[in-house]
Design brief:
Strand order of the largest sheet: 1-2-3-4-5-6-7-10-11-13-14-15
Mean pLDDT: 87
CATH topology: Porin
Distance between the termini: 18 Å
Structural class: mainly beta
Length: about 290
Amino acid sequence: MRVNRNHRGCGGPRLALKNHEKGTLMRAALFGLSAFLLAATSTAALAITDEIQVYTGDIEPLGVFGVTWHNNYAIDGTKNPEYPGALVDNHGYSSVLEWAYGVAPWFEAGLYLPLFSNTTNQGWTYNGFKLRALFVQPDNENKEFYYGMNFEFSWNQRQWEHQTNSGEIRPILGWHIDDRWSFTFNPIVDNDYKGGIAGLEFVPATRLDYKLNDKWTVAAEEYDDFGQLRRFVPAKEQFHQLWATFDYTGMPVSIETGIGFGLTPGTDNLAVKLMFMSDLSGENSLFGKR
């Protein structure tokens, strides 16, 4: 699972859960799920997407297999499809399971499958899958400056993206300011394999987080889409969304949830996310002895 282990405590030796810790984890999980389901049934946009997350350069330990379950919902999203046949964001739910494996101390391989959604204009749809290769500085969580590079290769259904194949190049740059504060910047470019370098789309993601204690972290995140490098789209058509995010570090399950607010007319006005993360192998895994 990809989480900031320096702030969310998912790396290194793990102790057995005490009974009150199990209760805390259960209450946090139920609270997050209840809040998400309440929003998802609201009749009230990060756009319909598979993943709303800033990468902080953390990877699975060597030989460990993990999973993250991503859930996103646009409470008040854009109401027109981006192109003919595309999904409508408003009241749209999307989800994907992200499988990850620690290949080396500096390399994590990932697979997103299945990627699906439920939207007002097309109902339940399967939207494709993608592969991920994440390269990082080893032991990033214990370094003052941390960095990495992520590459993604997607196979998309027509309603998800207008192009069957697309990709992402995501540099990771971060600074552990002190024991509690961290700042991370992902200057992402999306690639549809057309138009060369000028055809890349600039979609950066930024995160400033504060560690309350060993279990809870709060963060402000911003997700943007300026358009292609050859010419940014007009400001009112750009995507800019500001998020308040809350992370809970549990063993064997950690949770990240948040609410996002659109800053431009071209952005979903209100969206929520909920992620569950756990290791699936090793003695401290979801099924291991603790």
